[in-house]
Amino acid sequence: MKNLCCKNKVLIALLISVISLACGTSEKKSAGEKIIEKSIEASGGENYVNAEIDFTFRNRRYKSKRNGDIFRLERIVKDSTGNTTHDVLDNEGLKRLVNSKAVTVPDSMVTRISDGVNSVHYFVQVPYVLNSPAANKELLGEDEVEGDAYYEVKVTFREEGGGTDFEDEFLYWIHKENFTVDYLAYRFYTNDGGIRFRKAVNPRVVGGIRFVDYQNYKTDELSTPLRDLDSLYEAGKLEFFSDIQTENISVSINKNN
């Protein structure tokens, strides 16, 4: 791959990692942007900015570290033969180490590996990641899900800075009182495309940051508007797809920066 930062989700990771909640702008913010900001504040706020987060997902260890505009995302996998593969995604791009020795990643694999690392960190750190400069945030309206009132905020990404999957669409149901992201849905176009709806479960706060697991659902009707998914879920018309559990979470906040 000729240009890592412009051709995959690595750039999304870079952009979301340099955001500071104190960096304000004189531009008028949309209703969607304001709601996202309140959600970020309710879920950890400035604790994200210089956080070191360590967790396990599907028997793989993940670590992220931020220090201002410097970021590092990691995935550590130990296979059945005892070999350890350590992928590191940072401001300079992707690096892979096998048993602590650097190896060359074929160009054909760079995007796939980078996306795999970034996507896990992305969903673990919702809603903070939604403050990406490449993200368009639009308040579509309000709705009620399982007895609670929610804002429905649509998030899309601009082509410039939006990564290879910039056409993907996301919808977040943000609680009107406590501003938590309790449900989300997204439409993706890779691998023949698909739609997912996730319900956040098992919320807990670690090191001042809110984390959740997800119940993951799908529909094979790819023309379904994302805004209809909450009603389909309540009607039992979505197919359960998987449990998404983040385990062994630890957080360290570097307060010296």
Automatic annotation (TrEMBL):
UniProt cross-references to PROSITE patterns, sorted A to Z: PROKAR_LIPOPROTEIN
Organism domain of life: Bacteria
Family annotation (InterPro entries): DUF6503 (IPR045444)
Signal peptide limits: 1-22
Record has Signal as a keyword: yes
Keyword annotations: Signal
Protein name as catalogued: DUF6503 family protein
